């Protein structure tokens, strides 16, 4: 049995910052694929926090997704995640479902727990800016 095995749901309303028009599709006020990815990752970060040791965070290492249907500005969607794994590796199945029950997007995501200090040190070692928070 895995160390971690749980599901979580986050409900959000599609806002202008979530729309495809922000990503170069002028006038297309529908939920964008990049926003889905970002919101799903944030749901994972928040949900996994309780399963980490002090000084750890999770990072995304792989994603596969199928954006199936448009969702207009102002619509409510649920980000549903199901997480399984043995620390430090976590597998996530996710879906985004609108208020009518339509699966807008679904996919798989892999996350890994890392020590924040070691991760930042590695970035600084290769000359990349480190996280500020």
UniProtKB/TrEMBL annotation:
Pfam family, one: FlK
Domain of life where this protein originates: Bacteria
InterPro entries with a match to the protein in the record: FlK (IPR025540), FlK-like_dom (IPR054485), HotDog_dom_sf (IPR029069)
Residue span, Fluoroacetyl-CoA-specific thioesterase-like domain: 14-115
Record-given protein name: Thioesterase family protein
Organism: Amycolatopsis samaneae
Database matches in Gene3D superfamilies: Hotdog Thioesterase
């Amino acid at each position: 049995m895995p160390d971690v095995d749980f599901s979580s749901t986050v409900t959000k309303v599609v806002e202008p910052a979530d729309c495809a028009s922000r990503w170069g599709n002028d006038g297309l006020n529908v939920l964008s694929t990049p926003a889905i990815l970002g919101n799903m990752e944030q749901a994972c970060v928040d949900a996994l926090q309780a399963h980490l040791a002090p000084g750890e965070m999770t990072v995304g290492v792989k994603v596969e997704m199928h954006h199936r249907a448009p969702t207009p500005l102002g619509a409510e969607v649920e980000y549903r995640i199901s997480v399984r794994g043995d620390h430090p590796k976590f597998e996530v199945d996710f879906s985004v479902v609108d208020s009518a029950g339509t699966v807008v997007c679904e996919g798989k995501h892999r996350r890994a727990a890392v020590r924040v200090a070691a991760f930042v040190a590695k970035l600084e070692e290769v000359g990349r800016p480190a996280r500020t928070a």
